[in-house]
Amino acid sequence: MIFKQPQADLTGLNTLGFTCHAPWLVRADHPDELPEIFDFALSLNLPVFPLGGGSNVILRSTLNALVLQQQARPLEWPQQLPDQLCLRVPAGNNWHQLVMETTAWGYHGLENLALIPGQAGAAPIQNIGAYGAEVADCLLAVEGWWLPRNGQAARFEVIPAADCALAYRDSRFKRDWKGRFVITALQLQLKRQAEPRLGYGDLAERLQRRLQQQVDDLPLPQLIAETVADIRREKLPDPAVIGNVGSFFKNPLVSHQQAEQLKADWPQLPTYRAEQGVKLAAGWLIDQCGFKGFQQGAVGVHDRQALVLVHQGGGDAEQLLALAEKIRAEVQKRFAVSLEREPEVVGCQ
């Protein structure tokens, strides 16, 4: 069933809580309904903008598009659970609920990605990651529709993960496929037996304490997911309480030579090995510039995690972007390191 709402208020559909209006909001119960919605958008001469949980977008006051949302649908589990499972996940499903459901069945793959806000369909776009893991580690393929283009009708395709150019917080869905493909489902490879990734921060130590204290014999993936969720709750604000989009900046990637020079000047700077260079902790850089807890009108920097910019209410995207530019400029001036924004800016003021 298709639900259509004209003159839609998107304020409650983005985790920053910014006021935004769109000419149409359309919700689809099933992926097969999407071609009809695409035709409706064409008749209105409007682009289609898929909006999931609204947790990685900065909405300006007007979004001149047909905003598409896909409803959650139950997972289809086999009667006999194998050691390795290819699980099909509808795009509209809540990501954290997916993590907790799969780990409760004893499957490894998503446990380090617990409590990341948003819906499953957005996961490959950003190649979401946390605590040393990324969705690319277990993604087999994405399903979805190519939007109508140059007189050609919408076309369904299953795209292998290897063709999506998944990288650190990046994919083809953010570049040459942006605005062209709507994800309707993920195909994930999950395993009962796997080596846990516990090398990030104090995750291993926290998990060990939980193992010593547990009363119920819970699966190890579930224990890891619960531990990760506990850590995230301590460090990150709840979007339902304080408007935010989680990490606002990517951890910058620099050369080995630049990393060595920075470490010589700043021995406490956290660094992480990467395939091409060294990652720096963006939150640490921002904190060293004195921005943790900083407030500028209705927006500011969280007092426990400098990587998170917050909206206290009554502000707008322009105020947040002005603060972000102020932070970026100060980090560039002090460390000669360029910060790149994670969330996408959408709409016009």
UniProtKB/TrEMBL annotation:
Reaction(s) this enzyme catalyzes, per UniProt: UDP-N-acetyl-alpha-D-muramate + NADP(+) = UDP-N-acetyl-3-O-(1-carboxyvinyl)-alpha-D-glucosamine + NADPH + H(+)
The catalytic activity of this protein is classed by the Enzyme Commission as 1.3.1.98
Keyword field: Cell cycle, Cell division, Cell shape, Cell wall biogenesis/degradation, Cytoplasm, FAD, Flavoprotein, NADP, Oxidoreductase, Peptidoglycan synthesis
* Pathways per UniProt: Cell wall biogenesis; peptidoglycan biosynthesis
Report the residue ranges that make up the FAD-binding PCMH-type domain in this protein. 18-193
Please name the catalytic residues of this protein.
169, 247 (proton donor), 342
Example of a GO MF term: FAD binding
Checking InterPro entries in the record gives: FAD-bd_PCMH, FAD-bd_PCMH-like_sf, FAD-bd_PCMH_sub1, FAD-bd_PCMH_sub2, MurB, MurB_C, MurB_C_sf, Oxid_FAD_bind_N
The keyword Transmembrane belongs to this UniProt entry's keyword annotation: no
Cofactor(s) essential for the protein: FAD
Query: Do the record's keywords include Oxidoreductase?
Result: yes
Of the GO CC terms on this record, one is: cytosol
**Superkingdom:** Bacteria
**Designated name of the protein:** UDP-N-acetylenolpyruvoylglucosamine reductase
Species of origin reads: Marinospirillum alkaliphilum DSM 21637
- Which gene is transcribed and translated to give this protein? murB
